[in-house]
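Example 130.
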Amino acid sequence: MNEIQKHKLVRLKKQSRSYKEIASALSISESTIKSFHRRQKLKSKEVYTVCKNCGAELEKRCGSKKFCSDLCRYKWWRKNTEGNREYLKINVCKNCSKKFKSYDNKERKYCSHECYINDRFKKQEREIRL
Ligand SMILES: [Zn+2]
Ligand SMILES: [Zn+2]
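Predicted structure in complex with zinc ion:
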């Protein structure tokens, strides 16, 4: 196939003509068209990725971008973090007795690192007094 034929093929395909119609219009075989079209599809998959938030096509040569814009990135992260995350259980802090949610299966005894430190100090003090 020469460039002109390729060009025509793409145009005819856009008009959603059948392979048969295109084949007779360009006087080439149907199988040539099919394989050309398959290659085109593969190529377009390589070039484009899709914005994770809005589904807009992205050009791969802009690096490994996952979003079409910073706004989409922001929206997506908001949708997929904190507020929406399912917590697995409610724990009670050993230090301040505050209830807190945990988002994983680990056994957590303190609501924060501060409480962890505070409780350790208290324990040490108790031990010293004894
Ligand atoms: Zn987007
Ligand atoms: Zn606490």
